[in-house]
Amino acid sequence: MRPAADAGPQPAGQPARQVPALPVAPGTGVALGAGVALALERASVHHGGPRCALCDTSVSIAPGEQVALIGPSGAGKTTMLGVLGCAVRPTAGRVLVDGAEPWSLSGPALRTLRRRLFSAPQTPPLPPRQRVVTAVLAGRLPQWSLRRSLASLWRAREPEIAAAALARFSLDDRLWSRVDRLSGGERQRVSLARALVSDAGAFLIDEPLSALDPTLAGQTLDVLIETAATRGATLVCSLHQVDLALERFPRVIGLRDGSVVFDRPPSRIGREDIARLYLNRDAGPSPGRPEADVDDGSAASRPARCF
Ligand SMILES: Nc1ncnc2c1ncn2[C@@H]1O[C@H](COP(=O)(O)OP(=O)(O)OP(=O)(O)O)[C@@H](O)[C@H]1O
């Protein structure tokens, strides 16, 4: 693993730039690097209709563990991340964060617990007219007082911290740009830079690579993985890039129809497992569809590398 200070993505063939290490958040009372334990116990979520978006699901994620969530559209990945991030309340079952049941806590205790979690949604909620520096430093709001947060809207505090985070994503030259002057991929990385400036013990990241080209996607994922590993933070990341999930994560959970189909290391996930996970049951088999790639018998024992 590369050291945190020089791990930012670099264009191929160019010498590595010197990137300052991220300063540590002072005085928050939250130990940087203390990973958060996350668990679902027979958790279900109904978003209103009869179908469950998450169906009687149990998983246990140790502090500092790195887990990829994969599965077809509508499988329940965002819903699972929402439940783990205490944004979505399970309609049945329990979620546990560091052993505590968030939905039974008082308001202030729940807010304290949520500070331990950093959730990055699929579509970054970045105000278009905001400066990038302000957008990134929003990742520090949970650890700032109200007064300091309001003051930061007027004048950016600690811009060097935002600059260091942006540098990890090769965006340091965009520090003072307006958000609406960024490309979709730049906006996505600005949103991820928020995770780097936060002192959360768990990163729950929903499809962080959807707007990125393949090279940037790999580099960006590496920054997230290295940052989490360096801090000992827990990382749960939903991905549609199955190859990257299998290459970069030690544990991969396959979700389909709100249920866990498999939950194991990539070395024990075969092409057949991937093909079944993504099987489109509305259409019959045809050449080029996932099941056509599966070798009968031996496929399940080989790591999948077919997407
Ligand atoms: N707010 C909502 N109201 C009603 N149904 C919802 C809501 N959010 C999600 N769903 C439904 O819950 C199911 C799971 O959705 P979810 O967004 O968790 O899937 P996903 O695996 O993240 O999908 P994608 O890969 O397309 O982002 C889907 O059937 C979806 O239509």
Automatic annotation (TrEMBL):
The keyword Protein biosynthesis does not apply. Keywords: ATP-binding, Cell inner membrane, Cell membrane, Membrane, Nucleotide-binding, Translocase, Transport. GO terms for molecular function: ATP binding; ATP hydrolysis activity. The keyword Ribonucleoprotein does not apply. PROSITE patterns: ABC_TRANSPORTER_1, ABC_TRANSPORTER_2. Residues 38-282 form the ABC transporter domain. Gene3D superfamilies: P-loop containing nucleotide triphosphate hydrolases (3.40.50.300). It comes from Zeimonas arvi. This is ATP-binding cassette domain-containing protein. SUPFAM superfamilies: P-loop containing nucleoside triphosphate hydrolases. Residues 1-21, 280-307 are annotated as: Disordered. It comes from the Bacteria. InterPro entries: AAA+_ATPase (IPR003593), ABC_transporter-like_ATP-bd (IPR003439), ABC_transporter-like_CS (IPR017871), MetN_ABC_transporter-like (IPR050086), P-loop_NTPase (IPR027417).
